[in-house]
Amino acid sequence: MSKKLIPTLVLIFLLSCLLCACGEETPLLTPTDYDLDAETAQTVRGVKIGDDAEAFLAAYQDFDILSSINGGDYRFIPAEEIPFDTSLTTILPSFFIDGAAIDIDAFCEDGGIEKDGLLAFLTEEAYLTHHTVVYQYLVFEWKDGVIQDIRSESMDYNKDASYYEAN
């Protein structure tokens, strides 16, 4: 699978997972939550390579976590049900508009936007002319219950919105 396709698929799964989580209020991560120490690859919440599920959940269980088991599709799995002892990738995603994290439910409701049309809305040239839109996510690679790798990645819609167009 193309490396460029993965963020788009994750975004689609994020939106569909958030559609399923209606009525539940989840705290939002801040831009600094996506910072990694360059030397240790440790998150600002103290999670690092070699940590186990207990350390990860202590830091992130209250946030939306998407999981891909054995390279499958990303989906929302409640924190207590994530199978950390398998080959697993977990992702902590957030949209930031003008530097602030957004609650997707509230953003769509306030703007009269259908959730399945959010990606198209955020990538419209007219919207990007007046706002900065960044999609950030922390990626944790797991094997046998231990974090093998941590990456912080982002997609800046203003720099190349055509790259992220919804199909």
- Low-pLDDT ranges: 1-5, 18-23
Instruction: Report the β-strand fraction as a percent range.
Output: 15-25%
Mean pLDDT: 85
Distance between the termini: 17 Å
Radius of gyration: 16 Å
**Domains counted in the coordinates: how many?**
1
H-E order = HHEEEEHHHEE
Taking the sheet with the most strands, its summary is: 6 strands, antiparallel
- Compute the number of helices: 5
Oligomer class? single chain
Overall 3D form: globular
How many DSSP E strands? 6
How much helix, percentage-wise, in residues?
Answer: 25-40%
- By secondary-structure content and strand pairing, the structural class works out as alpha+beta
Can you give a write-up of this model?
The chain contains 5 helices and 6 strands; from the N terminus they run ααββββαααββ. It starts with a helix and ends in an 11-residue tail after the last strand. Strands 1, 2, 3, 4, 5 and 6 form a 6-stranded antiparallel β-sheet that branches. With 167 residues, the chain is of the alpha+beta class. Mean pLDDT is 85; it is low at 1-5 and 18-23. The protein has helices spanning 5-20, 53-60, 104-111, 118-122, 125-130; strands spanning 66-69, 75-76, 88-97, 100-101, 133-143, 146-156. The chain has one domain (5-164). A hairpin with a 5-residue loop joins β1 (66-69) and β2 (75-76). The radius of gyration is 16 Å and the shape is globular. It is 26% helix and 24% strand.
